[in-house]
Amino acid sequence: MSRPQEPHRPFFPFGNPLKMVLPKGSNLSPKLRALLNNFEEALAERFRKLKPSDREDVLSLTWMRFAMELLCQTHTDIKTIITELELPVCDWDDKWIDVYLDNSVKLLDICIAFSSELARLSQGNLWLQCALHNLDAYPSKQLVRACSSLDGWRQHISSKNPRLENCFTILNSLTGTLNLPKVKNSAKGNVLMRAMYGVKVLTVFVCSTFAAAFSGSTNKLVDLQVLEACLWADAFADVQAYVNGEIRNIFSSGRATVVKELEAVQISVKKLHPTIKDGVGVGVDPTEAEAVQNSISDLGKRAGKLSQGLDLLTNQVDDFFQILLSGRNALLCNLRVGGSVFDPKDEINNVQGQIVR
After folding, report:
1. Which residues are CB-neighbours of 30 under 8 A, at least 6 positions away?
2. Residue 5 lies inside a defined structural domain of this protein
3. Which of 39, 182, 300, 318 is the most buried (most CB within 10 A)?
4. Quick check: 91 pLDDT over 90?
5. What is the pLDDT of residue 256?
6. Host domain of residue 213
7. Structurally, how many domains does the chain consist of?
8. Residue 278 pLDDT level (bands cut at 50, 70, 90)
9. Where is the major localization of this protein (predicted)?
10. Contact 173/220 with Cβ under 8 angstroms?
């Protein structure tokens, strides 16, 4: 459980980003201006959609899956922009390529850590299913075994995943490169850099909230201040303040986890465990037996919802991993064949063989 944090000051990776010089609109052709505006307006709408209508939805598995889905859509959009710009790789600044490749491998590492944690949480469902199986014929002589399974689940869930420890370091590194480079004599380059800036802001925000949820710590939850000139800036500031504020409130209130479906199961286990401990409950009167049966039924429903939510979120994280990997491989392929236009839609036949789990 983390201690209440000091008030968070705006984070400025390379000085004050509000003072950075954006490309003047007059330097962009109507086509390029429309391309950039359409991208930024779509990103603004996604930030608005990320703000839950109910505070209880913050960091539910449903919300997390939706956030990852929007992240996938935005990374796909940046690939489309790269293609529509018709900007050959040979015209890319070496620094752009280095940053793209460096950031992509870091995001792949984050995906692997998130997938590892989701797999660990899913493994905990085996304990729950064992407990529910032994409670299926309540009251029975299997209560001690059921109680042992619930103990095993609580110990498993409270353990730490070492793969998550590196996430905060990676996020700090990504945040440190969250700037908007100046591009001389290249209107297309300016559009590309500004679009990639928006993608990086969304990526750091989503991955930061996931890392906080999975690690049980808000120590590295970042408050970004972004360029006001971006069409999505206000929408981002609004959702960031809302979501980060709610996460900090949850931890400061002493709740064990911010993942809502997991918390719901913990509440059910906490309620049921004392009732069945050491076989207590066998031979109770019908009213008490019915109450216990209701608790068992409630645990079953919540465990099912948790399992389904983890599976759906795992699939979405895997989709993000594939998008990152295909884009990275497409760029490397184009570099090897002589610097043609970077088309991230190119398929790499051996993608599956390169995935490390």
Report:
1. none
2. no
3. 39
4. no
5. 64
6. 17-354
7. 1
8. low
9. membrane
10. no
Angstrom distances, CA of residue 41 to CA of 26, 235, 251 = 19, 10, 33
Q: How many CB atoms lie within 10 A of CB 339?
A: 13
pLDDT at 183 over 80: no
How far the first Cα of the chain sits from its last, in Å, is: 29
pLDDT attached to residue 139: 61
Query: Residues 204, 175: contact at Cβ < 8 Å?
Result: yes
Q: Which amino acid is at 224?
A: L
Give the residue among 214, 197, 231 at the shortest CA–CA distance from 59. Answer: 214
Q: Is 8 a domain residue?
A: no
Number of Cβ atoms within 10 Å of the Cβ of 321: 20
Q: What is the pLDDT of residues 318-352, one digit of tens each?
A: 999 999 998 888 777 767 655 544 444 443 333 33
Is 260 domain-assigned? Answer: yes
Q: What rounded mean pLDDT belongs to the chain?
A: 81
Closest to 180 in 3D by CA, of 195, 163, 160: 195
Q: Could you tell me the CA-to-CA distances from 31 to 27, 86, 176, 184 in Å, in that order?
A: 12, 12, 32, 19
Query: Does a structural domain hold residue 103?
Result: yes
